[in-house]
Write a structure and sequence with these properties.
about 280 residues; mainly alpha; 8 helices
Amino acid sequence: MLEYRNILIFLAVFALFLGATVEISEGSIYIGIILFAIGVVMITRLKIEGEVPVKSPKHRLFIGILIIIADIIYNLTTSNQQLGTLDVMTFLLGLSLIAQGINREDAHRMGVFGMYMSGIFIVLFLIFFSLFNKLNVDFTHTFDHYVVLLPSFYIIKAAGLPVELVSTETVRIRGVEDMTVVIGGPCSGLYSMFLLISTVVAYSRIEKIGRNKVFSMLVLSVAVAYVANLTRVTILYTVAFYHGTEMMMLVHEHLGWIIFLVVVTVILSVLNKFSEPSPEPEQ
């Protein structure tokens, strides 16, 4: 069972990884790399209980190194050299495989956790943002419009704010300034859902949690992530109306971290309870 101390470290690591992703994609690449490096270092501070024999498959260490090198070369040789969420998770996958090749139980266990978390996220990302596009399945725009934009639009309209639906992913807000807000991509909340799903599955792989409990937590994670993102989008509308574009963008960069940390706190706390051994019956 993970100690509460480890829960706090998990939260810090998630905050750093999310911060790294935001900085790399929207802010400073150098700050993003630093945050990501700090997050990796903090993973090594986790203490995992349990007697699990360490099998150090050295080939995974070399595969991890190759994955990191390949991603770096790809970004340096393509026209789009901006690192993004997929790159961050690819680096984490490589580092996790490297950790599994180290002859230490804690490094091996955290390598397993990181491998499942990053691997599942990458698979989900490629399915929804790459495969669907190649198959001409317009999932993301449909999801953004019907599941995110319309509910948030009607919520903010019911609150009395003058908003106008412009297109599939765009609304116009007439507040302190006339502006259009695009709801799509990271604003869809799919990244958060993918991260939470990956976290729950990865956690279940290093802790003894029943399948029924894992399934329940997966459903809860998706529901909570959706509500949290809907709340975030609604707050952004409100900030845009009262304070304008500049303040909205400032809130946009940081609000996701805060809400996601609250969500992860709840999810990991519940998972921690699920992983606690049942009390032995009295004789």
